[in-house]
Amino acid sequence: MPLYKLQINGTTREIDVAEDTPLLWVLRDHLNLVGTKYGCGIAQCGACTVHFDGAATRSCVLPVSAIGNAKITTIEGLSKEGDHPLQQAWDEVDVPQCGYCQAGQIMTAAALLKQTPHPTTAQIEQTMHGNICRCGAYHRIREAIKLASTKA
Amino acid sequence: MSTVNKSRRSFLKSTLLTTGGLMLGFSWASAGAAAPVVVADAGAAASLGFNSYLSIAPDGIITIFSPNPELGQNIMTSFPMIVAEELDADWKKVKVVQAALDTKAFDRQVTGGSGAVPHSWKLLRNAGATARQMLVQAAAQQWGVPAEECTAADGFVVHTKTGNKLDYGALAEAAAKLPVPKDVKLKDRKDFKLIGKEVKNVANKDITTGKPLYGLDFHREGMVLAMLQRPPAFGTRIKSVDAAAAKAMPGIIDVVQFKNNVAVVGKSTWEIMKARKVLKVEYEKDGNTESSEDHAKLFSTLMDTGTATVRRKDGDVATAFAGAAKVLRAEYECPFISHSPMEPMNFFAHVREDGVELVGPTQTPALARTSVSKLLNIPEEKITVAITRLGGGFGRRLKADYVTEAAELSSIIKKPVKLIWSREDDMTGGSYRPAVRYRFEAALDAAGNMIGYKLRGVGINSGNPTREDNFPSGAVPNLLIDTVEHQSPITTGAWRAPITNFLAYAEQSFLDEVAQAAKKDPIQFRLDLLQKAKTAPVGAIKYDIDRMIGVTKLVAQKAGWGTKKGVSQGFSVYFSHRSYVAQVAEVVMKGGKPVVQKIYAASDCGEVVNLSGARQQVMGGIVDGLGHAMYSKLSFKDGAPQQNNFGNYRLIRMMEIPEIETHFVDNGIEPTGLGEPALPPTGGAVANAIQKATGKRIRKQPFIEDPVFSGKTQAAPAKKMKTA
Ligand code: FES
Ligand code: FES
Known about the structure:
Helix content of chain B: 25-40%
Number of helices of chain B: 17
Bound molecules: FE2/S2 (inorganic) cluster
Radius of gyration of chain B: 28 Å
Largest sheet of chain B: 7 strands, mixed
GO molecular function (chain A): 2 iron, 2 sulfur cluster binding; metal ion binding; oxidoreductase activity
Strand content of chain B: 25-35%
Protein name (chain A): Isoquinoline 1-oxidoreductase, alpha subunit
Structural class of chain B: alpha+beta
CATH class of the largest domain in chain B: Alpha Beta
Structural class of chain A: alpha+beta
CATH superfamily of the largest domain in chain B: Aldehyde oxidase/xanthine dehydrogenase, molybdopterin binding domain
Largest sheet of chain A: 5 strands, mixed
Largest interface: A-B, 61 and 63 residues
Pfam family, one (chain A): Fer2_2
Keywords (chain A): 2Fe-2S, Iron, Iron-sulfur, Metal-binding, Oxidoreductase
Shape of chain A: globular
InterPro entries (chain A): 2Fe-2S-bd, 2Fe-2S-bd_dom_sf, 2Fe-2S_ferredoxin-like_sf, 2Fe-2S_ferredoxin-type, 2Fe2S_fd_BS, Beta-grasp_dom_sf, Diverse_Oxidoreductases
CATH topology of the largest domain in chain A: Ubiquitin-like (UB roll)
Oligomer: heterodimer
Distance between the termini of chain B: 67 Å
Strand content of chain A: 15-25%
CATH architecture of the largest domain in chain A: Roll
Number of domains of chain B: 3
Number of strands of chain B: 29
Number of helices of chain A: 5
């Protein structure tokens, strides 16, 4: 099996897996980074969202061989102290229900705010369309993104 | 050590922690039962099997164990809030820990039926108040003053006259040596500082930083992973298995067959998924392999000729219908749907010589244990169940099928194993909300009074798909409710607000039809019926008429019922579990389609414990109810589910949510639960609003399949509504 050197959360991680292994399973099964969640495996729910050179990417369909030197950020690496404006807003608005989807929601939103620091409601909804929250916490997710955008 | 009376189950027990703090165990099994018992050290407490307690450490940190599984209903926050309220604790110093299964210490360690807070409300308050009283007593003794001169607040006992102050941590050791008081005074609700406020989820930080909280995140050194290949269609079984290719795949440890499953055991999820694809399994028929078309026909046949079980009979429906001025009849239908919690099913099991360890997401840890005990013939005492956080449940994790699978596999391969269901496994693996068709009939007299009412429910593995003692029973003199059931190989199970999640839609839609036929405002029509049930009740009923009227009037007022221009309003009210929720949905026409713009909800769940959590439950319930009524359906072909993942099974997304306004009736009665009751009314309110907007009545879920959403629908001419 090929050996990959991945740039994850600012450190280089070496991993020996088959080339078609999705990043999601590399993170979860091999690197013990389980904050990135499995929800569907087919890029339909957003639970597995990470940043690929800053862009929100569904890690469940990203083969490890396609990563190269790209910088990967997972929820564990979004901020050192867990105090990214979105993480703070998530608490302030009290977003999570079961919480399972929330890492993916935050990662999608973080990429949006990086590109568009003050998104409109329509832009938020457009971007977040790919992230399912089965508990239906959508109102607060939207509100928290807006709140974070006023602070960034 | 003081006397320990083991023959009586005690309610409260205090004990010294080895670290010198106060540990107050409360046995949930015996609310208000026998006299309290004091145990003097943690070892004694442990030997009595108390692991359900609040403990106060010398540094003032208060640990409260939360026994019920957390799946997003926010129980890990609301339970401790109740204890902390009566304890007058400093909320910032409260730590919450998920307790493992312990049927000796806890009663009803279940998440389901919106029942946790109603069940434990008094128990938790008593526990907090008892500890508070002991702390006050300890301080009074230390100061040599009467306890009456002392008060407690924010984690301190204060002597009012001198201003002396001691924090709970400093008092815990002395307090633990005191006898546990029998009668404690609970707070007056007007003095609540935490209860009724918006308190944030205690797990927010862990959730937003990606901590390993869920079953799927669980890891144990030396464990293997596994997935099962289950029959692709209900009504089939394994004929032959050729596992050679799968076994030869990299990372695969073993492939084993048990029952109708082929387990692929390996080191990593991806390798297992790949190996599973090259498994060659042949299946053969083992029963009926049903298709959705068969069900449609079956519904029609059984509706007319099925053997019905009578659920309720009042008066004489035949005479009422024969003499009616007007008779209405309509059928409503709901499909199978999947629970699809975001975290698919999974469980860790380690079957050893000397016992079994189970870890994972379950709504019913006790059932998980009994099931494994029966399956493997291992006594329950030798089985432990640790509960992880649940990535949603919606009723799916009330079943223990995925737990016994893991245990059985572990017993075969003799290894600790984490069994994982893929999303496809989860969606096609059964235990669905049952499919049901209803036929409603109403008889009106010349004045528009409903003098007769008939409901027949035909369900596929639905059990009783009616709630015969709910509204409008009690308000109609001649009434007949009966049911017919078809047994199918397709498995079904409780789905958030079981039965009522679709019955309410059908019934509240039909009542709107009747109100229209009677030329009455839909809200006034229901209020008139409720008035009848109050003044001239027919038979026994399970709902509280005044609470139902209360939410109805509140939502009408908040939504400005009948006063708005440019929007079409639809109303619905429902009683489920123990609570009452009324909703008004507002629909506008956009691009030839009805769009739900806003939903108002008025809830009566008794005392609201955590306002933030309560709002979430209402909003989440509405989004859930709307999403599934609008979009979701699981259909079958020859026994095989036709939808298997979120690409072809539609769930509601952010763009599709309406604005939601939540209101609560403030009546001071004890909490009656809120995990489910906000869901049932939504489908009906929305369907009624769509009818008002378009003139079209949607009698089948999912609504999105109705031609009204084709994009060519004309708005119905606006009618002047009478205000309720
Ligand atoms: S798990 Fe990747 S999008 Fe669902
Ligand atoms: S909070 Fe449960 S899926 Fe989003």
